[in-house]
Design goal:
The protein has 410 residues and is of the alpha+beta class. The protein is built from 7 helices and 24 strands. It has 2 domains: 215 residues, Alpha-Beta Complex (Sulfite Oxidase, Chain A, domain 2); 121 residues, Immunoglobulin-like.
């Protein structure tokens, strides 16, 4: 909007100047009061009625991306990280990984059995679990195969495909330790095995010290019952640990004296090293960060000031700092960490960047509270080779061309 200017008064001016100035001032006020939308944009009748379950605006388009080259039947979906805000992923956009589809389970009949090396084997209904002391915590979950395409050079075109197998939610449930104490864990119980009720019967072993520390048996996500694709009616939440250990559709926990060595922790979800050996039970997710805006698939309209924004997380506690480079790694600048900065949860960061219009690489690098610094892909490949398909936490660069087109910088 252009504001009318008031004419300058000449020396010895008269009443005519005063009238002209008054007219200009009135025009300025009218311009300030003018509506910013045309009448055609404003509703002329009553809108939609109140609904029993809310939905988003039809003008919003963010969706999970489905499937990949290895799983074309969409047993996996990727969260649209570029199109989310803050640190909480909407339940409807939380990433998914299914090994045998989504089972249909009734919370009225579903149970959780605790047995094995316990004094009192117990079976809990969902209602009985809800009568136990409840807790709510913000935790991220990341599939250990997140960013796996970057290992082999099959670089994803955008941040959704490269990093979208992570999400963060508020989970509500009961501490697993509360349940295990009621069962009376025996001294010889050093591991647990958690099993899901899906057709694949996904099962993972966890050390007892982790099970007694901060593992949650969750029945709610972001304030409502778990959605079926997120494990309804029960899911194990294992903070900071690879996603497969967060067993969905949980129906059984067995206390044992050694890991069960299931297929999900031997032939699957192990890291094959160049010398033929494997890293096994690589539970913790290493510190990782990624710029979500601007990122692959975007086009910047021209030189100017842009806010660089992204997410950082670590399986070892809290994010301590994030640094940003806009010159391909020659210099790094500390980003602002947006509150809240919570342990074992996504942390939002931002930094103001004045782009001069030249071609460059931008990237983020996180340091967690243990002092661990996110590595480059070259350093990670030197340590593990190209055989590993899991636990890639390397720095992700985005290339910005002189035309403003942003692509995968790897």
């Amino acid at each position: 909007m252009t504001t009318p200017t008031i004419p300058a008064r000449k020396p010895g001016g008269s009443r005519r100047w005063f009238l002209r100035a008054g007219t200009s001032f009135a025009a300025a006020l009218a311009a300030l009061r003018a509506p910013t939308s045309s009448a055609a944009d404003l509703p002329g009748s009553l809108g939609a009625p109140v609904s029993g379950y809310g939905s988003r605006s039809r003008f919003e388009r963010a969706l999970r991306a489905l499937g990949n080259a290895r799983t074309p039947r969409s047993t996996v979906s990727y969260a649209p990280l570029r199109d989310t805000f803050g640190i909480v992923t909407p339940s409807s956009l939380h990433f998914e990984r299914h090994h045998a589809g989504v089972p249909e389970l009734d919370s009225a009949t579903h149970t959780l059995t605790v047995h094995g090396l316990v004094d009192r084997p117990l079976v809990f209904s969902i209602d009985e679990l809800k009568r136990l002391p409840s807790v709510s915590r913000f935790f991220f979950i990341e599939c250990s195969g997140n960013t796996s395409s970057e290992w082999t050079g099959a670089n994803a075109p955008d941040v959704q495909r490269s990093h979208g197998l992570t999400s963060c939610s508020e989970w509500t449930g009961v501490w697993l330790s509360t349940i295990l104490r009621q069962s009376g864990a025996q001294p010889g119980a050093t591991w647990i095995v958690a099993e899901g009720a899906d057709a694949a019967r996904v099962a993972r072993s966890l050390p007892m010290d982790k099970a007694m520390k901060d593992v949650l048996v969750a029945y709610a996500q972001n304030g409502e019952p778990l959605r079926p694709e997120q494990g309804y009616p029960l899911r194990l939440i294992v903070p900071g640990v690879e996603g497969i250990a967060n067993v969905k559709w949980l129906h059984r926990v067995k206390l044992v004296d050694r890991p069960a060595m299931t297929r999900w922790e031997t032939s699957k979800y192990t890291d094959l090293l160049p010398d033929g050996t494997s890293r096994i039970f690589t539970f913790e997710m290493d510190a990782k960060s990624v710029i979500t805006r601007p990122s692959g698939g975007e086009t910047l309209p021209g030189a100017g000031v842009y806010e660089i924004s992204g997410l950082a997380w670590t399986g070892r506690g809290a994010v301590a700092r994030v640094d940003i480079t806009t010159d391909g790694g020659r210099t790094w600048n500390p980003a602002e960490l947006q509150a809240p900065v919570l342990p074992l949860a996504h942390t939002r960061f931002r930094w103001s960047w004045r782009w001069d219009g030249g071609e460059t690489l931008i990237a983020s690098r996180v340091t967690d509270e243990t002092g661990y610094v996110q590595p480059t892909l070259i350093d990670l490949l030197k340590a593990r080779g190209r055989f590993s398909g899991y636990h890639n936490n390397a720095i992700q660069p985005w290339k910005v061309t002189a035309a403003g087109v942003v692509t995968n910088g790897l």
